[in-house]
Amino acid sequence: MAALRQTQYETPSPDPRFELARLALLHDEARETALLANLLGRTPYAAAALAIASLFAVLAGLGAMPAAEPAIWMILSLIGIGAMARIYARAIERPFERASLREFSSDVRAAIVYAGFAWGAGAFLVLSPETGPIGLLLYMLAAPVVVACTLRERELALGFLAPAATLCAFATVLRPLPDGPLAAAFVVIAAGLAACAIFWGERLLAPHAAPAKLPELPLLQP
Question: Which of 4, 35, 14, 22 is nearest to 210 (CA)?
Fold first, then answer.
């Protein structure tokens, strides 16, 4: 009995730095899970908003283009929206598992980039041949603004904006649209300003939205 008491007293207590490092690690894991879970919860709203925007674009272009082109574009858009819905449905079955949420994050990024290309293709398939620079800008910015406001995630918003703006700029010259070079310049400038707004908007909101990060300490062996 005395030997057992002596062994207990001689056992060293855990290093406080080790416990703090473990706490910081748990904090980072919990924060990542919370951010991804919030993104998961916002994804259906983004998919629904894109569906509504696509419907408005088709209705606005009725009569200006042959029926085949808007129908093809709507199918392209619905593929991206359906992919987002499928990714959400699969991830919501395990909404707080970090591995599942990381897989969801990777998949939804790919779906958003595809949706951006699909939206940009509308400049070829939906917009009237007489669409001027202002109408093109309104079309090009509508969906990226929707994605940025619903998902509130910088990389996803930029991943949608880049292909959408690129295809819209190409459409001004390749179709061509009225004032093609001028419209292309407007698209590039507007896309740059939108990207800056997305970037700085997240930077301004980050201090209020993100919890304070614990200092990172080296993980010591007990």
Answer: 35
Angle at 71 between CA 65 and CA 74, to 5 degrees: 115
| Residuewise pLDDT in 10s, the chain (222 residues) | 444 444 444 445 555 665 656 655 665 666 778 888 899 999 999 999 999 999 999 988 887 778 889 999 999 999 999 999 999 999 998 877 888 899 999 999 999 999 999 999 999 999 988 889 999 999 999 999 999 999 999 999 999 999 999 999 999 999 888 888 899 999 999 999 999 998 887 666 554 444 434 344 344 444
Cis bond upstream, residue 176 (ω within 30): yes
Q: Could you please report the per-residue DSSP string of 60-120?
A: HTBTTB-THHHHHHHHHHHHHHHHHHHHHHHHTTSTT-HHHHHHHHHHHHHHHHHHHHHHH
Which of 29, 33, 36 lies closest to 213 in space, CA to CA?
29
Instruction: Return d(Cα 191, Cα 168) in angstroms, integer.
Output: 10
SS3 138: helix
Q: Which two tokens stand for residue 123?
A: 């400049």
Please say whether the beta carbons of 39 and 73 come within 8 A.
no
Instruction: For CA atoms 204, 206, 212, 214, give the dihedral sign.
Output: negative
